[in-house]
Task: structure prediction
Amino acid sequence: MAIPRILVVDDDSDMRQMMTQFLRQNGTIALPAATEREVQGHLAGGRVDLILLDVMLGDENGLEICGRLRDEQDVPVIMVSALSADHQRMEGYAVGADDYIVKPFNPDLLLARVKAVLSRARRSSSLVHRRNIRTFLFAGWTYHAKTEEVLSPDNVQVALSQRETALLQVLIANPHIPLTRAEIAAALDVTGDTSQSTESIGRSIDVLVGRLRSKIEANPKAPNILKTERGVGYVFAVDVETQDT
Result:
């Protein structure tokens, strides 16, 4: 397994050094940066697996940087900030951050959150906010993410519900990757409903999968696109091509 390469972006030199040194001591390659220009330089120069991005960067705004990164990159981003109000956290998630950590923080907590985001990224790299301006092609089908239009191989538009569309987005972002019901539920934010049990959530995913199959499969009872992965969950079993629009 490759050693994670983590970009630490903070204009406070002491904080940047502390975080970089701590991450290096814990099995990662930590790269320091203080500006958006330096971030872009690192991204252009090699693989980056995760970005720790401070919200306040002197004259620059970390939220705006995160938004621009998300338009261009799929690399996970954890916002780091002294701003702790709920609406400030939500602003981070709204621009595509994968997590939000408030200063001051316990270094061990930081490491745990880093490992969790890296694990999610390796497991299913697009179960988080991703680009929505692409066209996806699979098994003769076309999905225009910007307009959320789905066209059959016969070029007939097929109407999907909002939930079915969200499921399709998760699946086409992860072709050939078996996903558990829990992972799918988390991506659809189904797990946010604390009134539902794990078993109930699993059943709701099964029903949703059945509905989507009824619309994109020639024979929903013998699916070729969205298959059941025994003992795991479901897998989008066809290649997916993307085109920028």
In short: The chain has a mean pLDDT of 85. The two ends are 34 Å apart (CA to CA). Residues 198-216 form the longest helix (19 residues). The CA atoms of residues 177 and 235 lie 6 Å apart.
